[in-house]
Amino acid sequence: MLTKSKAFSGFSVDDVQKAKIFYRGILGLQVRSNPMGMLELDLEGNNPIIIYPKENHIPATFTILNFPVEDIEVAVDALLEKGIVFEQYKELHTDEKGISHNEGPLIAWFKDPAGNILSIFQQE
């Protein structure tokens, strides 16, 4: 029944304008305003991701978006220059930049202005 459905994902923020500035201005993503007061992220190869305002927003405690990159060191450095602060997780062996050298791909986590967790990871 749903196998041919064009599913999409969404997440909440406490301030749509701050989210728009962050996702468009800092991360450089295509962001469209929606007539219902929401934002739509246009990511290559995906249906849009909806960002909606929620008055009693609580940040996700899990990663809501993962961005594959070719070179994580280059991507982390570029985002650091834009003021992004990467999370430090002792149990995941993150280095001084926030890159995890645990099993699996190299990965680094950061938060959007609403406190939602995002990641970049190096494609193998």
The value of Rg in angstroms is: 15 Å
Secondary structural class: alpha/beta
CATH topology: 2,3-Dihydroxybiphenyl 1,2-Dioxygenase, domain 1
Number of domains as seen in the coordinates: 1
Oligomer: single chain
CATH architecture: Roll
* Low-pLDDT segments, ≥5 res: none
Give the averaged pLDDT, no decimals: 92
Query: What profile does the largest beta sheet have?
Result: 4 strands, mixed
Helix content: 10-25%
Question: Could you please describe the fold and organization of this structure?
Answer:
- Residues 5-123 form the VOC domain.
- InterPro entries: Glyas_Bleomycin-R_OHBP_Dase, Glyas_Fos-R_dOase_dom, VOC_core.
- This is VOC family protein.
- It contains two helices and eight strands, in the order βαββββαβββ.
- The chain is of the alpha/beta class and 124 residues long.
- The chain has one domain (10-122): 2,3-Dihydroxybiphenyl 1,2-Dioxygenase, domain 1 (Roll), CATH 3.10.180.10.
- It has a four-stranded mixed beta sheet, covered by helices on one side.
- Strand 6 and strand 7 form a beta hairpin.
- The model has no long low-confidence stretch (mean pLDDT 92).
Task: Give the topology.
Layout: E1 10-13, H1 16-26, E2 30-33, E3 39-42, E4 49-53, E5 63-69, H2 72-81, E6 99-100, E7 107-111, E8 117-122
Parallel strand pairs: 1-4, 5-8
Antiparallel strand pairs: 2-3, 3-4, 6-7, 7-8
Kindly list the characteristics that best describe this protein:
17% helix; VOC_core; four-stranded mixed β-sheet; alpha/beta; 2,3-Dihydroxybiphenyl 1,2-Dioxygenase, domain 1; 124 residues; 2 helices
